[in-house]
Amino acid sequence: HFSGELGRPFHPVLDPPDPPPAAGTVVMETTYGDTEQLDEDGTAALGEVIARTAERGGAVVIPAFSIDRTEVILYALRSLVDAGTIPNIPVYLDSPMARSALGFYVRAIAESHHEIRDAIAGRPEVLDPGNLTITESVDDSKAINRVKGPYIVISASGMATGGRVLHHLKRELPKPNSAVTLVGYQAGGTRGARLLNGEKEIKIHGEFWAVNAEIASVPAFSVHADRSELLDWLASAPSPPDQVIAVHGDAEAMDSFQEVVGERLSRTILTPGQGESILL
Question: Is the same domain home to 180 and 59?
Fold first, then answer.
């Protein structure tokens, strides 16, 4: 059985992952195999960043993965606007893939798909903060450059390795009144990780750009299951697998998860390297 990417039990839009079936071998992701996440949704922390940036008149750039992370952020923004925690400033979704994915989520919520949480089923408006513009073209994306006053832009990629978010970072990183909010896992060596590490210049499109903007991290928005949640999912199978194969994780994460599975579940776990074959 293959786990796919496992979500968190308290995902605001989707129901928790189904338990695995009985299987001799389980292949499972271990993105956070060495990490315990905070048991919170990050909404309050995001609201604080947006509120103080809006007060400064700056822009909030949110690099976000196109699928699922974007929807979680939009849901949080709607909650913050409804609560009066942040002003109803313009929100721009600037990512072709995110635009397409959002359409699937909106339809699934509107049709009360069985994987959607009951609390929001039939209410697709929960993904609209109220002042949302979804860019349809490159010209729409460039038009954001002319926006005055505080605003929020959500754009891929989530680690700032490519995509339209790079154009927004070039514009806003040098501005002390703006903010870049990182809302998920940042792999070592990526621009997102370098921003988290406090680097004062970031190379984008062959040029170095000063980092004067506020750099904020809200890791609670990660939608990947953490180590305890991965273990709980594995233990929820009707019968334990004979072996577990760890994939989709850094070497440190897979090695750590291998150790904890052996200790807590007494199961054999393999951590294959790149290109390695395993006989099942």
Answer: yes
